[in-house]
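Here is one chain, start to finish.
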Amino acid sequence: MSDVLELRGGAPATRKKVAILGGGISALTTAFELTSQPDWQQSLDITIYQMGWRLGGKCATARGEHMRIEEHGIHGFLGSYYNALPVMRRCYEALGRQPGQPLATFEEAFKPESFVLMWEYIDGKMSRWPFTSPRNDLIPGDLASLAKLQKVEHWVAATANVLDALLDHHASSHSALSLVQSAEWAVGRGLVKAVVAVLQSESVVLHGADSVLWKALDAAWDWVRNAAERLAEGNTELRRLLIVAEFLLAILRGCIKDEVASKGFDQLDDEDFSDWLIRHGASVMVASSPMALNTVNLSYQYPKGDTARTALMGAGCYLHWTLRSFAYAGAFAWLFEAGTGETVIAPLYEVLKKRGVKFEFFHKVEGLHLNAQRDAVESVRFGVQARLKNPERGYDPLIDVKGLPAWPGHPKFEQLEEGEALRAGKVDLESYWNGWKPVAQRELRAGRDFDHLVFAISIGAVQYLCKELMEANTAWKHMVEKVTTVQTQTMQLWMNRSTTDMGWDIEFKNPTDTVIGATYLNPLDGQVDFTHLLKWEDWPADSAPQSLWYFSGAMAEYEAPPPFEDTAYPARAYARVQAQCVQYLQASMGPLLPKATTNVISPPGDPMGLDFSVLRTNPARPAEGVQRFNQQFWRANIDPTESYVTSPPGSTAARLKAWGTGFTNLSIAGDWIYTGLNVGSVEGAVMGGRLASFAVSGYPALTDIVGFPASQGPV
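Its structure:
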């Protein structure tokens, strides 16, 4: 392990200075893992350098008017976040909030979600496909539960269990079948149960076309393909169940045929996901079904963010993500009880601050520079965005909202020398196009200010900040070319009617479920009802909103981003998102919220378009029609640091490992490095942070980073 920096032999004479660049999930996870080691302060001195006034990166949250929660997009954890969930459980344990405090425990902060709203286009219209995944007894973030979900064999077995449970749960779907059809259905159920029984055997072998498992799968597969048309005619629920069955069985067949358990997922990443599914027997209909598209939509896998083009995703990345998503702990997903900033980012910050990690806000990286030998980083140059009035005291970034530490929507101007100028100029310190000149320059030098550097800024910024590294090491240039990013857009709507009053009529099977989906109309194909967050906002009682909806999706890049001197670019991008959102609401709300349309609220009128009177506006600022949208929240995620990392075919091989940067004092962290998962996500970012911690200190062990292939460790 010669290329991993290890802590050995007790405390050194001087502590190793670790500088972490960036303040997103990966940077915070790196620091969290480094400081989770006993007596870490005897050997390490850790500082995080962050642009602007808040932490979180793509998960940063702000508080706006009436303390409303304003996000970069829709965030939550899947039940298969095998690294993120344990990190957050440990974080809440270290946080040590007292009983009765808001979000005092992990269980109070994260709630199970099993409902997914999918959509089909049938007979010329959008049709709802409500899907509730079965729950299980595993506990998210619990090490004993995690031990049952660590291997590919576990994921395959869990996927088969989900299919089996779904078929049992929806027995009512075949109540109208004839006796002959019912008998045929019973045969199929027995074949699927035979697959589950084989997978539950400890001696099961996940390869070989002559294995007992393959023969059981083959029999179930033949039944699904041959019986589907006869059984499902005129029965929508049964037809959908058989689509799910074909999709999951194709995945299981592909895992065995391609020997994924022994050869890994990377071998498949030169192939596109849809080609892989079809190669293993899935019909084109199933490969283009909402069940199959959930993964690519959740992770924005559209070339240049253009949802008018076919999604592309490496088959190995797709399979790894999708297979894991059915092997969940407790529930399919775990949603945040407050905003991402309050539930995830602030707790991590508070724990790290308490442990002794130092934070330098308002430090925008301008460039990394190499030594004469071009084998190490010699210096890091920052533009200091603002100076503290009390440098010794440091910057206090958080505010209190109903007893919950939260992030304001702008810097705390009163703490800054340039505070009034920033306030008057409405300067966005997180934008590369803000036109704000640094008030000072700062340089960190190797050996004096840092001994080891962790670059935890998103890959979209590498081409601007790491030019010397790209020139010295072609692997960096290759990575930037292959690991692409897309811009995204989001809007949040505060409604003066409840979701039920606007036409939602599907009853949830679980008390904490809400509406969440990723296969609605593009470009804002993701939507979620986050009404439960309203309790953390501060609205006047006589004009408080009754519901809160988020919409999110990719944003097509019609042209390359302009030079940073073009300070009007953000305004143009935001205006474009505003126009797209208004058009979207005018054209697509009928299927989702049928009683929120003009034709229902103020007939006669448009049966598809939103009646904008349902949008909550300030009584002191009355508005009519589409002008009411102006008081909602929308965002264009256009900056290099906030573009979403994608996983196109051929990109996995270009990802560098945390310790494989080619520079002796530099490690990297993020969902863009090689993690084994290799999909943009909080889980990928947490894995990247854990891997960076390992690169710096040897902790945590690679075997504890679930999803990272042991064969890919340092030699």
